[in-house]
Amino acid sequence: MRLTALLRRLRARPVALPPAEPGVPEIQEAARRNRGSLQLRHVDAGSCNGCELEIASIFSPVYDAERFGMRLEASPRHADGLLVTGPVTRNMAGPLRKTLDAVPRPSVVVALGDCARNCGVFRGAYGVEGAVADVVPVDLEIPGCPPDPEAIIAALRGLTGT
Amino acid sequence: MTSAWLVATALVGLVASAAGAMAPLRVRVHISVTLTIAACASGFVMAAEVLHTGGVAVVHTTALLPLGGLSMVLDRFGALFVAVSAIVGICAMVFRLGYHGPGLSSRTASCTLPLFVTTLLLVPAASNVTTFLFLWELMAVTSLLLVLVDHRRRSEVASAGQWYAVMTQLGATALLVGLVLLATHTGSQSFAAIASRSAHLPAWVRDSAFVLAVVGFGSKAGMVPLHVWLPRAHPEAPGPVSALMSAAMVNLGIYGIVRVGDGLLGGGPAWWWLLVMALGALSALFGSLHSATSSDLKRLLAFSTTDNVGLMLLGIGASGLFASTGHRALSLVALVAALLHVVIHAVFKGSLFLSASSLQQATGTRDLDRMGGLLRRMPMTGAIFLIGGLAMAAMPMLCGFVSEWLLLQAMLHGLPSSDPALAVAMPIGVGALALTGGLTALTIVKAAGIGLLGQPRSEGAAEAHEVGLSMRLGAGTLATLCLVFGVAPFLVVPSVVDAARSVTRARISDPLVGGWQVGLGGVHGALAPGLLAVALVVAVTLAAGARRVLQRTPARRTQAWGSGRELQTATMEYTATSFGEPLTRVFEDVLRPAHDLDVSHVAESRYYVEVATFHTSLDDAFERHAYRPAAMGLGWWGALARRVPNGSIHRYLAFGLVALIVVLVVVG
Q1: Average pLDDT over all residues of chain B
Q2: Which of residues 551-580 of B touch A (CB under 8 A)?
């Protein structure tokens, strides 16, 4: 009995947290493709920088999101997808499309925060083009204003699959 | 028969020059250029015949020149240089037909250009001191006039002309003294007589004659530290002239050093050749460094000429050093490498200078920072420039690879020697060659990448159109030769070996060439560029096929990544200056870059910039430490001398008295 438990632990991955929650089929498919590594290019499409603070904190020593294989990447050419925050302003709509165009296919787009999902408090503002989904196709949404670091990590773990 | 060709070459050249001076403007260029091409063709036939049969072309007459009279003997060694000048001359003249440089259609230019080409063809045939110096000076004067054709519009031209005139006259003085020294001590001014008697001359005569020859010929070849005129005069000369100067005239400097050192003096002590090697290594490194950091396209090419002359000198020095230490076989290989590099440098530098002139004519600028996007607008000229550039970077399948490989092999085989001079010189030579090769590759990545690719950085570059047929033909022929000599060096190597043998009088029967291979006589190592080319083509085809088979999804084409900006303009691109900046920083002590940033603000607020200009310039270390102090010293001396004659009649009378007393004391 003890021996089988030991063998099972030897075989299993060393995890400090329960395994990631599987998402919808498309996200599962992306997770299978990513195989534990998710390189994201962050695009601030007009955010108030609240979401940026939370993104910064998930890579801090407290949450250490890199242990799940997710990283922020400097160039879209090296990225698996985009991490978009904020409502898409008129000035950023074109650059956002161009950035997605520069990402190799297949790619994912994550809309992070309420503003990215539905423009949040900026809805109808004069400089806002629309939500992220109005500009580029979105694969994963993370609600919250701003989302908690735990929520961001949990959602992105669905994409990395770890 | 060959003598008749020699006379024909000279006569046709003179007729071309006269036609350029007298024909009406409408037909002037076509007549003089056609006749010059005929002179070049006649020179090439003569050279080919001499190279092939080993016969000599002889013309003697006491009528035309004072002192020794006109005497010309073309042997195989000279014929090699005549052939190179003829090929470059024909291509430059064909190019000239389509070239519209300012001032080049004037009576003076149309008269001097054929004369210049003719002297390039005749100098290697001169066989006594008078004839040689006459033709040499004629070449210097005609090339000076051709550099100066545009002097009315641009002041840089006049300044370049001054530098060139001073340096070439100093060099000619050194030559005059050296050759006259030889002539007086051997009692004859014919080259053949000097060569047969030079072995018995006192050592100081031989030494000073050789050093003076290195100085005189080196200044014409653009050897460091006598190179200062070259990066000024070559870029300012009109397109075909700059090609002739860089691809044919500098060769004659190399010709002179070998002719005097190996031919007239029959080789010498090791320190002669160590001197030549040291100057060669210095020229190669200095030239390639400046060429890698230069952003003026023609200045870049001019510095690369200095660099390549350095490689030739390295080969000549190594050859002499091997000969003086008893390695006869290696000596021949090194000399063949140097002479082969003369031929090959002429071919690729000719194509580079001609295509660079096409780019200049199409865009209206020589500044690489203002070019860009030209490969798409001028595909043919761009391709010619690329081929020439890759040959210059010694890429396999192109001609530069063969000669640099031979040179490297010759020096590497000298490494195991126990002779201390060889043991010190050869590793340094190999290192200089290696570093030069790297810098040259960087140079050509810069020139082609910044000039031909990307977006146009000026209106001139945006509106550039492909140049006319004759310009493409002139430059394209040389580029084709780059490919031909690179794949099939056996077409040219035997002639070079014969030429080298004829000047060193070496009797080595080991073949340097066997079928498709280029081998080394007496030592191990062989190269088959033809097979290499076939292997490369097969490998590339296989790789392309494999990629086609293995690729699952077709590639998606998108814009170049520019941080998502809506507008991607040419100002965001790398420029030649920024590309060379890291290298400039590494070699800051040598290059001494001077930066000049000028920012003018908007009148309403100084937080907004209206115009910002940035200018950077590099300094020539030799100019800074040698030429400018020398020029200042001369100026100081002149100012001092001007104070002596102050206009007082009493003082002048006193001068006369003092002079009389001094004469009486000395004579008495």
Answers
A1: 89
A2: 553, 556, 558-559, 561, 563-566
Q: Tokens 């200044």 map to which residue?
A: B219
B378 Ramachandran zone, left/alpha/beta (phi>0; psi -120 to 50): beta
Q: Is the peptide bond before B225 cis (omega within 30 degrees of 0)?
A: yes
Architecture of domain A37-160: 3-Layer(aba) Sandwich (3.40)
Q: Mind listing the pLDDT tens digit for each residue in B105-122?
A: 888 899 999 999 999 999
In degrees, rounded to 5, the angle at the alpha carbon of residue B543 between the alpha carbons of residues B541 and B546 is 110
Closest chain A C-alpha to B568 CA, distance in angstroms: 12
Tokens of B631: 């020029």
Q: Could you tell me the pTM of the whole model?
A: 0.86
Q: Could you give the C-alpha distances from B72 to A20, A97, B2, B55, B491, in angstroms and in order?
A: 92, 75, 12, 14, 28
Q: What pLDDT digit, counting tens, does each position of B311-331 carry? A: 999 999 999 998 888 888 888
Chain A CB contacts of B558 below 8 Å: 101-102
Name the residue ranges covered by the structural domains of chain A.
37-160
Among candidates B353, B385, B337, which has minimal Cα distance to B492? B337
CB B79 within 8 A of CB B51: yes
CB pairs under 8 A between A and B: 24
Residue B453 has a CB neighbour count (10 Å cut-off) of 16
What does DSSP assign to residue B632? H
Residue pair A157/A110 in contact (Cβ under 8 Å)? The answer is: no
- B522, with CB counted inside 10 A (0-12, 13-18, 19+), is middle
**Largest pairwise CA distance in chain B:** 103
Mutate to test the interface with B, among A41, A43, A98 (most CBs of B within 10 A): A98
